[in-house]
Amino acid sequence: MRIACSANFLNFISSPDSLYLICTIIAVTELPFHIIGTYCIISKTPERMKNVKTNMLIKHFSTILMSLSMSFFIIPYMMLPALAGVPLGILSKLGVPVPAQMYIAVTGPAVTGVTILSVFENRFALLTEKIEWRKIRFVYVLLNYLSGLAVFVYPMSQTPDQNSARKELIEVSVEMSSRILGYGQWFSNSSHGIPLQNSPCFLELLGSYTNSIFIITRSPMTTAIPMIIEMVLIISQVTLITILIFRSLSNLKFRLSPNTYQLQRKFMKALTVQFILFITALGAPVSVFTFSMLLADYDQGINNLCIIGLSLNGFISTTSMILLHQPYREWIFGVMKNNRLCHEGLFHFLSSPDSLKSICHIITFIEIPFHFFGVYCIAAKTPRRMRNVKRSMLIMHFSIICLKLIMSCLLIPFMMVPALAGVPLGLLEDWDIPLSFQMYLAVTGPAVTGITIVAVFENRYFLVCNNFYWRKIRIPYILFNYLTAFLCFLYPILQVPDQSIGRQELNKSFPCILKQSKVDINSVFFFTTETLTTAIPMIFVIFLVFVQAIIVILLIYHFFYTERFKLSENTTQMQKKFMKALFGQFLLFVMILGVPVSVFTFSMFLDDYNQGLNNLCIIILSLNGLISTSAMILLHQPYREWILGICNKRSRRSSIITCVVPVM
Hints:
Elements: E1 4-5, H1 16-44, H2 53-73, E2 76-78, E3 84-87, H3 90-93, H4 98-127, H5 131-150, H6 153-157, H7 162-172, H8 184-188, H9 203-206, E4 214-215, H10 220-251, H11 258-295, E5 297-298, H12 300-311, H13 313-324, H14 326-336, E6 341-342, H15 353-381, H16 390-410, E7 413-415, E8 421-424, H17 427-430, H18 435-465, H19 468-487, H20 490-494, H21 499-509, H22 511-517, E9 525-526, H23 531-562, H24 569-606, E10 608-609, H25 611-622, H26 624-635, H27 637-658
Parallel strand pairs: 1-5, 6-10
Antiparallel strand pairs: 2-3, 3-4, 7-8, 8-9
Helix pairs in contact: 1-2, 1-12, 1-13, 1-24, 2-4, 2-12, 2-13, 4-5, 4-10, 4-11, 10-11, 11-12, 11-13, 13-14, 15-16, 15-25, 15-26, 16-18, 16-25, 16-26, 18-19, 18-23, 18-24, 21-22, 23-24, 24-25, 24-26, 26-27
Transmembrane segments: 19-42, 63-90, 102-126, 227-249, 270-296, 302-324, 394-417, 437-457, 477-494, 535-560, 581-606, 612-635
Pfam families: 7TM_GPCR_Srh (PF10318)
Protein name: G protein-coupled receptor
């Protein structure tokens, strides 16, 4: 097979690092939408449609998992028309076997399609008058799930020997590298070990990932045929069941009330549109991949664009679900009209101050050993070649610990969002520390932690890139960042209103808050009557941290790409592994902080009070230290290898002890 290499306007997303960055940003951005979608299904599905709630949740979660597998867990860097690729996601860093990752990648859409089919089947089973169907429906649904899970087992069992298959892939891809991305002249003067005019065009994009290429199969039809069969099977079944449902509705028209009949029809129409959107969002990339294989045309920019499209499937599905289904849409539009709501919600068992205080204390007790472990890893197990980063890593680690202790021990803020009010339950309250200072710590802690993470990235840029001009301004730049973090919330703190007036306003606007929260109104601290006073500094700090981190990461990767022939292979690999681990830590921090902040923001925007949900957000923030420390140990190779080494030694000792048999 002769593979043609194309160059087009998508060359800027052709590299593995570009795909990794875009997909992780998509994963972080999608999470708030998925949370809202889950809340809509659980709390806003009408009572008359409660029978469909379980199937809707299963479908929603399968769509989320499929989207996250593409944008976070696996991130397959596909190299079509060859059925080969490199997984870039978190599962690779955790050492999950590549065949298992590829199986998840190809099985996810099939299982998601079956979950959508099960929602249609559920509606048909409830509406049909055929008793026979109700007897066999369990077997029918089970067979479909088994089909979705097993359809790619045979293709995955036929994966060839990777060394010989990789060599064959490189040999048949003999087009000149200059035909991709227009880099031929630049590379012709390089001192690369392989003559570029005889090397496959994709090698220049893969770089250090070349040895990680996984060949799924030598024969594309081995995978294409099961994929086509499964898609045809699902589409035909959904089409047939949809026709039968509308036929059943027509038969029941005069037996159902007009409202119930219209509700069923609207639900089915919305579900049908959702299915069409799912097939379109899945079918477009699959069609492009198919044509790429038929034409034997290699264009990595198009391949990456298709993976990005698959990563956006969850966002498209969740958004369409909320907008298409009338109960969810009316709730969203209703709360946008500033209707103030109070309800117990799903997490009512967490709504009391005592529940929050007890859980936070337990988290603190569990986390402390992990933090000591993390400090020891940085201080004693950081390689000598990376000793310049040790100080920045320690500062970042201590700031995360301080943020965690503020939330779970010193402060424990019992927040009453959407009102910017709360009751501190921690040790600082017992020590009679002023409430305004406690609230200042609560809002400043995440900002300072974010700046310390940016400082670690900046430290890498300074040491690796050795930019003369940056050396002159970096100290003022770092001081500006820290001063911004410490001072941006000073004005809101100084504008705290008279507490008696604030409490009266709270009781007037949200009379149910004090009733449901079961706290004394005199212990409530009212932060501000103007939401924007606090929201604007918060948005500014989040924007400052996120944008700076992304810019510095891109500058570092640009340096690695342009200077890769001047650096030794070991040095380049070590620096890139460290940067990926650090970027993973940063994304986890953004996700842990972003989920509660998003929930609080939506609560204020929608004027929706749910104390159990507020307390859950504080618990998530309290877990920040445990998750961040565990991620640091697992993501950074020297720390992970040391931990695994200790575990292996202990397992060997235990095996020796258990093998000793006393002689009687």
